[in-house]
Design brief:
Length: 75
Amino acid sequence: MRTFLLLVLTVTALYVWQRQGNDAVTATKPRAETAVATRAAPRPVSEHDWAKHSIDRAHEVANQVGETRQQNEQP
């Protein structure tokens, strides 16, 4: 029982310590720079990333079809 309690307390302390460390790191980074860096330019399609590319392309086509239908409905 003591070993289990010691294990639970240790894991809890490590979790709290890690959460505090992550909050300090994210607080020092400016949010504007991280947003600009992540969406500056689209990545080229990788042969290993074909599934994501096909889903993204299907989404783009669905948006184009929706826009075309909206334009055709307006007199």
